C-alpha cells in the first residue's frame, strides 16, 4: 500500500496515546518479568486468526480471503509474498486499524494438556504494538524524549501513573539499546538503525502482547540491517513477534513459523524458500 495514504494513521500509531490505568501499567511491568518464571506457568497462549476476509468499504473485491493462522506466544512469525498480495492489509486488521469483513482475531489460552482452557478472547488493539515501514518518516518531535512520550497524559494523570510511565520509558530505552544516547538528541540525527530502535522503543513503553513489524529492514544499509536483526533476536526472547518482510535470508535464523501470502489475499503455511 502506498505509504503516503497511510501517513496520518501511521503518525498517530507511532504515537498512539497511552490509555493506562496504574493497575494496567503494573500488570505490564509484571508481564516483562514473566519469562524468568516461565517454567512455573501452566499452558500457553496462541494468537489465532480464523477465516478472516477483508473487503474495503465501497469495493467489490476481497483483499484477504479466509486467512487462517496461529502464532504461539513468544515465537517469531514471518509473512512473505509478492507485492500487493495483502500483507500490509492483514497487519492493519491485526492492529485494529481496519476491521475484518468476516472471521475472528483472538487469543486462545491452552492448558498443559494442549486443550483450550477457556473461551478465546478477542485480540484488543491496545495490546498490539505495530511498527510500520519507514517509521522514522513519521517522527514528529525534536528530542528522543519527546518522541517517545508524545501522546502521554500531561496534566490530569496521577503521580503514580507518571512514575510508572517514566520507569517504562527507561526500560524500553534500555531494551532497544538506546541507553547510551542522550534523550535530548534530535531523532532525525540518529543513524538509520538507531531510528528503528527508537521506533521500537515507542512501541515497547507499553509492553505489547503482540509486536508487529512491517518490513523492519527496508531502506537500511548492511550494518544497520545486521543491527536490527540482532535487536529482533534479543526481543524475540520475551515477546511474540510477527514480521512482514521480503528479506527472508537475513531473518531466517529467527523464524519459528512462516506463511506465504498469495495474490488475492490467500495465506498458506510454507517454509522459507531460502
Ligand atoms: N483501501 C483499499 N481499497 C482498494 N484496494 C486496496 C486498498 N488498500 C489496499 N488495496 C490494494 O490491496 C492490495 C494489497 O495491498 P497491500 O498493501 O496489503 O499488499 P502488500 O502485500 O503489503 O504489498 P507490498 O509488499 O508492496 O507492501 C494491493 O493491490 C492494493 O493496491
TrEMBL record:
InterPro entries found in the cross-reference section: AAA+_ATPase, ABC_transporter-like_ATP-bd, ABC_transpr_CbiO/EcfA_su, ECF_ABC_transporter_ATP-bd, P-loop_NTPase
Pfam families to which the protein is assigned, alphabetical: ABC_tran
Cited PROSITE patterns: ABC_TRANSPORTER_2
Keyword Nucleotide-binding: yes
GO CC annotations on file: chloroplast envelope; membrane
GO MF annotation: an example: ATP binding
Keyword flag Nucleotide-binding: yes
UniProt entry keywords in alphabetical sequence: ATP-binding, Nucleotide-binding, Transport
Residue ranges of every copy of the ABC transporter domain listed in the record: 47-274
Name the UniProt record assigns to this protein: ABC transporter domain-containing protein
Amino acid at each position: 500500500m502506498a505509504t503516503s495514504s497511510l501517513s496520518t494513521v501511521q503518525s498517530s500509531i507511532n504515537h498512539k496515546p497511552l490509555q493506562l490505568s496504574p493497575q494496567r501499567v503494573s500488570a505490564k511491568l509484571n508481564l516483562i518479568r514473566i519469562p524468568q518464571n516461565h517454567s512455573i506457568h501452566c499452558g500457553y497462549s496462541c494468537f489465532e486468526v480464523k477465516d478472516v476476509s477483508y473487503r474495503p468499504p465501497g469495493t467489490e473485491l476481497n483483499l484477504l480471503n479466509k486467512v487462517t493462522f496461529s502464532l504461539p506466544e513468544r515465537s517469531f512469525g514471518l509473512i512473505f509474498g509478492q507485492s500487493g498480495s495483502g500483507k500490509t492489509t492483514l497487519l492493519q486488521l491485526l492492529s485494529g486499524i481496519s476491521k475484518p469483513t468476516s472471521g475472528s482475531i483472538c487469543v486462545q489460552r491452552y492448558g498443559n494438556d494442549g486443550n483450550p482452557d477457556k473461551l478465546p478472547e478477542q485480540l484488543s488493539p491496545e495490546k498490539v504494538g505495530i511498527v510500520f515501514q519507514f517509521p522514522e518518516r513519521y517522527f514528529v518531535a525534536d528530542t528522543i524524549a519527546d518522541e517517545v512520550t508524545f501522546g502521554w497524559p500531561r496534566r490530569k494523570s496521577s503521580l503514580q501513573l507518571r512514575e510508572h510511565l517514566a520507569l517504562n520509558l527507561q526500560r524500553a530505552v534500555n531494551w532497544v539499546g538506546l541507553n547510551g544516547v542522550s534523550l535530548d538528541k534530535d531523532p532525525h540525527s540518529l543513524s538509520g538503525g538507531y531510528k528503528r530502535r527508537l521506533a521500537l522503543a515507542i512501541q515497547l513503553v507499553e509492553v505489547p502482547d503482540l509486536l508487529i513489524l512491517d518490513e523492519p529492514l527496508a531502506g537500511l544499509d548492511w550494518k544497520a540491517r545486521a543491527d536490527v536483526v540482532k535487536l529482533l533476536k534479543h526481543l524475540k526472547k520475551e515477546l511474540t513477534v510477527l514480521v512482514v518482510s521480503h528479506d527472508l535470508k537475513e531473518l531466517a535464523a529467527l523464524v519459528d513459523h512462516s506463511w506465504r501470502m498469495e495474490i488475492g489475499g490467500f495465506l498458506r503455511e510454507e517454509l522459507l524458500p531460502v
